[in-house]
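queue> pop job 88
queue> type: inverse folding (structure -> sequence)
queue> payload:
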């Protein structure tokens, strides 16, 4: 079993910034893609951004130009820099990681961290 520990959530005014971190530990042999997903009240969980071990990123259209995802492979940690936050960004943000040998043998979710953006 692996553990994904998220941090950095909180309350911020519209236009402000937050930086989320997710550190993976435990049984994470062959860790590959990591990313962030979010779930707003009464909404389905949706992809925010993902990043490969090579640093190739993919962003939801709603956050392009405002959010930046990066990773430190040595620390098995990903960072989500969120700028120009909007009330629509309010959600519980969940970290995700997938890996294994063969690849895809495991995947794990963090417990989630609340991000609230006030107008």
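queue> result:
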């Amino acid at each position: 079993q692996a553990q994904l520990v998220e941090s950095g959530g909180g309350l911020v005014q519209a236009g402000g910034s937050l930086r989320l971190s997710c550190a993976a530990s435990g049984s994470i042999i062959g860790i590959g893609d990591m990313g962030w997903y979010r779930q707003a009240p009464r909404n389905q969980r949706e992809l925010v951004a993902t990043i490969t071990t090579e640093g190739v990123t993919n962003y939801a259209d709603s956050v392009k130009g405002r959010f930046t995802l990066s990773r430190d492979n040595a620390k098995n940690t990903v960072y989500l820099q969120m700028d120009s936050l909007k009330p629509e960004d309010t959600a519980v943000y969940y970290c995700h990681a997938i890996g294994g040998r063969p690849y895809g043998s495991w995947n794990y979710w963090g417990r989630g961290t609340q991000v609230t953006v006030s107008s």
